[in-house]
Amino acid sequence: MSKRVAILFSGSGSNMVALIDSMTGDHPARPVVAVCNNADAGGLAKAEARGVPTEGIDHRPFKGDRAAFESVLNETLARHAPDIICFAGFMRIFTDTFISHWQGRMINIHPSLLPKYRGLNTHARALEAGEAEAGCTVHEVTLELDDGPILGQARVPVLPGDTPQTLAARVLEQEHILYPAVLRRFAAGDRTPIRLP
Ligand code: GRF
User: SS3 for 96?
Assistant: First the structure.
């Protein structure tokens, strides 16, 4: 039986789209819901256009009460009964209770070569540090932010004249290749890390 995948995102949802589009044919998983905390994000329409049920849960009315937000999120997720949760640019930090509940079933993409540059503004920080290469990481979500066993990494060169924007665009292209490749493997029960290229 196919694994049921929930995708959580906040922004444009390009990784969400790459994941949805990958789950066809003999893929061991299928998308069951796309959840966004930002109704203006535009990504929900892309999921709907692909026939994937969507849920919008605006975090703002919860005014920083993370447990209350997560309680609604948990109810929403429970209705779709996912086996796997993919975070694809979901810009909320979770309580330990939420993480412990779903641990082992959650994966995330982060736009750096972890363990370098956890947190935000990864590309600007990599450029400031004079890195010769950058990239992205898919990892299991554990209690520490942007930590957890690494399931895959893709590298790109840093080029002369790069700005955070040009570097982000080069990394994002790789995110769209790496994340579907890792999800396919993870859904089949294989946690062997993928290295690209
Ligand atoms: C990606 O760079 C991802 O690595 C980060 O947030 C961004 C989301 O982009 N976590 P998109 O919404 O998938 O286009």
Answer: helix
The finding on whether 111 has its CB within 6 A of some atom of ligand 1 is yes
Tell me, yes or no, if the pTM score tops 0.90: yes
Q: Is 101 a catalytic residue?
A: no
pLDDT digits (tens, 9 = 90+) for 79-91: 999 999 999 999 8
Q: Which atom of ligand 1 is nearest to the CA of 10?
A: 12
Cis peptide before 28 (omega within 30 of 0): no
Residue 88 Cα to ligand 1 midpoint, Å, equals 6
Check residue 176 and give its pLDDT.
Answer: 98
Q: How far apart are CA 51 and CA 40, in angstroms?
A: 19
pLDDT at 41: 73
Instruction: Judge whether 139 and 111 are in contact, CB under 8 Å.
Output: no
Rounded CA-CA distance 20/7 in Å is: 9
Nearest CA to ligand 1 atom 10: 89
From the alpha carbon of 109, which atom of ligand 1 is closest? 4
| The predicted structure's pLDDT at residue 127 | 98
Token code pair at residue 73: 């999120």
- Tell me which of 59, 110, 139, 176 is the catalytic residue: 110
